Each structure stands twice: as structure tokens, then as C-alpha cells.
Amino acid sequence: MPGSNPLTGEPLALDLVNTRPAGPGGRTDLIDTPGRLAAWLALEAERLPAEFRGVAPGPEDLPPLHRVREHVEAVVRALLGGAAPPAAALHGLSEAQRAAPATREVGWDGAAVTAEPRRVGPLGVRLAALLAEAAVDLLTAPAVGRIRECEADGCVMLFLPSHPRRRWCSPSRCGNRARVARYYQRHRPTAGGGE
């Protein structure tokens, strides 16, 4: 079972879904406050456009991201189960993109003309649009068929394996737990065997 730190390094859309790991009392939200969202954005900074680095989200920025996360998870879980994705989730991803479309802002950097994608609107809406776009890119790519759920008991994390034998979201989290459990099963005392 993952800890309280978000699992990162998967495609951005899966990293977003993985901000709701399973815990002892059910699922935990690792981006439920502006501060925790800022911490997650800092972890993802290298993969985000400059406009989202070092930002200070507010409470109003959380709902659009949570909606996109729910839509992405609904689509991925349906696909994992061999079912058609919910139409409402697909529509929600389209709507999130429509709320803050990227346009190429033309500028001059002192030596050449530049064209940087920019979005307008509140931070949460712009970030939700970016993450919905990342989700659509993943969901329409051939790799979507390789997405897996961690095989560790109680873990709900999703990953895109780089190796076909990968079974856990993280070798240091669930992989270690599974290896320890297997070791215990092999070496536990048998019933009536002395202990």
C-alpha cells in the first residue's frame, strides 16, 4: 500500500489518478488542499509548462482538477475492465479542455520569433485543461492497452509498465511488501510445529 507521498514518473494523467491511493481507512486524497496541490505540482514541475511552476493554488483551483482526475480514472478503470468508458467521463475531459484551450502566443526572444502555448483563465481551470489534454493523449495512444493496476493487495495505483513482467506500482513500495509477504509465507512455522 503506497504511503502518503504521491507516486510520480508515470504518464502525467496516471500520476494525477495516483494522487488517490488506498489507505487503512479507504482512499486518501493527496491533493486535497492548496498546499498539497502545490507540493504535487512541484514534484511534476519538470513535466509542466513554466506557467504552472512555483504557483500558489487556492481552494477554488481544486474542484476542476478533482473532476478531471475522476473522469480519467473512470475511463481507465472501464478500459481495464474491458468495458466502454462512461460517456459522461469522456464528455468531462472534452469540457475541461474546452474551458481553457491552448493558443500559441507569438513572441520575440531577442534572436528569433517564438510560439509558446498559453492558456487563459483561473489556475485550476488552466491546469485541468492541461491534464485533460494529457489524459486524452494517453487514452488515444496505443500504450493505453498496457496500463495496469498494481497487483499488491489493497493497492489501487495505476502504471504503464516499461517491462512486461512489472507487477507493482513501485518496487520500493508494493514490490518490497509483496516480497516480504512471500518470504513470510515460505518461512512461517507450520501448525503444530514447535512454536
From TrEMBL:
Pfam families, A to Z: ABATE, zf-CGNR
InterPro entries: ABATE, ABATE_dom_sf, Znf_CGNR
Naturally occurring in which organism (per UniProt): Allostreptomyces psammosilenae
Gene3D superfamilies: Jann2411-like domain
Name of protein: Putative RNA-binding Zn ribbon-like protein
Limits of the Zinc finger CGNR domain: 146-187
Entry superkingdom: Bacteria
